[in-house]
Amino acid sequence: MNLEVIQADQKQETELLVLGMFEDDLYLQGIHKEIDEALHGILSQMLGKKEFTGKERESQWLPTYGHYAAERILLLGLGKRGTAQPRTYRLLGGKIEKQRKNSEKVMVALSTFKQDPYSTEEIAQWMAEGLELATYVHHGLKTSAQPERTEAQILFQVSEDDAHDVQEALSFGQVLAEGINLTRRLVNTPANYMRPKHLVQEAEALAKRYGMELEILEESKMEEMGMDALLSVGRGSTEPSYCVVLKYRGCTEWDNVLGLVGKGVCIDTGGYSLKPGNSMADMYTDMGGAATVLGTMEVIARQQLPINVVGVIGAVENMIDGNAFKPGDVISSLAGKSIEINNTDAEGRLVLADCVTYARQLGASYLVDMATLTGGILVALGDQVTGVMSNDEAWVEELLEAAHEADEYAWRLPIFPVHRDMLKSSQADLVNSAGRLAHPITAGAFIESFVGETPWIHLDIAGTATTNKENEIQPKGATGAMVRTLVTLAQHFSQEETD
Ligand code: BES
Ligand code: ZN
Ligand code: MN
């Protein structure tokens, strides 16, 4: 998709012209009036008969039969002035992409969407995001022919003064949505096509494309280093396990490093603590954390943010065979702590334990780990709210603020000493599962015990990484949740760096 600005006074023939209209603002002026006159009053007639009322997300076609410099006009409702939210603009962007059908040249009269307190740039960015998010479809491996979409050129009409800034905003919105779509694609790919080695290849491709440093730890190397927690999870699989590191250097000195750590369990059968079949089938999405790290790092690299980021991904399969780890085993970890395995289905925290330890060894000074970690978070917060845990008030405040700004829901759960106590083991430093009570929190507390003094945030995206509801910008399946929040966090991080 090609998103560009065009100066409003430059008349241009187009297939489709898109206009916004507010519900309480239907008297015709400016471009609306011009169109009404050109079309012999059809717009005022339609409004008079309440065929179009400007309600939020309402849409209406107007054919022009050659009386106007656009073949067709699409009216989009914005609701009452002052009510449209960022998400409204994203959804409207999505509506344009879905409704344009095969129009290849679309003009958007951006000024008709303007509403305080938002700037023209903000509105442009949100609409661009929606347009690009709406291009994402998951056909999977259907062998029947799927409808082909033509690439569109979407021109946003702006004043001369705004042209440069709006173009930047459009590009950023698009880059952000492409990062989200990358995350979605990785998560939606079935486990037999998204094995640990494929996750490695995806990281490799990103590193090449955007000039990031890449380190791939193979099993022999991890063995040597003592990454026993990650390796234990992957032992029952015939596919090798990996730990992948992406380094993005936006500063000359390698300090103040943001560490992003992701759970990349490509299939979680539960291992010997086997999952029932129906809950196993969705577990190809259990690499959602890793996919979120990759999507976020793509955006950071493309925007060339002036910060340092290290991304660490543990890519494994939790399977069963003669080599698999078993309930009752006691294993070790990169940090040297011993862990009593009482549930092989609590595998994500084991992978993360070694990955956060390695991120710290690589110089991460602030950590965010993300994982489809517990079914309990889905029960507690639902499928639209990401669970947050942290050991640092100031750092978690930054994250919650970023989530608010990015328009994603995130809610903090506590970790109290009583939760840490639940992880005590009689024969090792800790157990990997404290059972059912508060299990999203004890899972967080487990990871916390590996981060030492480093400010750390844990995001449990088990609820938010996938959805079974759909709308204009979100098909069923993977969502790409938290990419936007993490990019916003990274932007704030870079502003602090340059202050
Ligand atoms: N990958 C699952 C968590 C999950 C559940 C993700 C549902 C997405 C949807 C995780 O590895 C797991 O199995 N967690 C257990 C933890 C328990 C053994 C303490 C769970 O949530 O039941
Ligand atoms: Zn899992
Ligand atoms: Mn599990």
Let me know the CATH homologous superfamily of the largest domain. Answer: Zn peptidases
Largest beta-sheet details: 8 strands, mixed
Amount of helix = 25-40%
| Shape by Cα distribution | elongated
Overview of this protein structure:
There is one protein chain. It contains 16 helices and 19 strands. The protein is of the alpha/beta class. The chain has two domains: 2-139 and 148-178, Leucine Aminopeptidase, subunit E, domain 1; 189-498, 3-Layer(aba) Sandwich (Aminopeptidase). The strands form four sheets. Strands 7-8-10-9-13-17-14-15 form an eight-stranded mixed beta sheet, sandwiched between helices. Helix 13 links the parallel strand 14 and strand 15 (409-412). Helix 4 runs parallel beside helix 5, helix 5 packs antiparallel against helix 10 and helix 13 packs across helix 16. It is elongated and about 85 Å long. Bound molecules: ligand BES, zinc ion and manganese (II) ion. Residues 268, 286, 343, 345-348, 372-376, 433, 439, 462 line the site of ligand BES.
In short:
With 499 residues, the chain is α/β, with parallel strands linked by helices. Helix content is 37%, strand content 21%. It contains 16 helices and 19 strands.
Task: Present the secondary structure layout.
Elements: E1 2-7, E2 14-21, H1 30-38, H2 42-48, E3 59-63, E4 70-77, H3 86-99, E5 105-109, H4 120-134, E6 153-158, H5 163-188, H6 196-210, E7 213-217, H7 219-225, H8 228-234, E8 242-249, E9 257-268, H9 277-280, H10 288-302, E10 308-318, E11 330-331, E12 339-340, H11 348-361, E13 364-371, H12 375-381, E14 385-390, H13 393-406, E15 409-412, H14 417-421, E16 430-431, H15 439-448, E17 456-460, E18 466-467, E19 477-478, H16 483-498
Parallel strand pairs: 1-6, 2-4, 2-5, 5-6, 9-10, 9-13, 12-16, 13-17, 14-15
Antiparallel strand pairs: 3-4, 7-8, 8-10, 11-12, 14-17, 18-19
Helix pairs in contact: 3-4, 4-5, 5-10, 6-10, 8-11, 10-16, 11-15, 13-16
Bound molecules: ligand BES, zinc ion and manganese (II) ion.
Ligand BES binds near residues 286, 347, 372, 373 and 375.
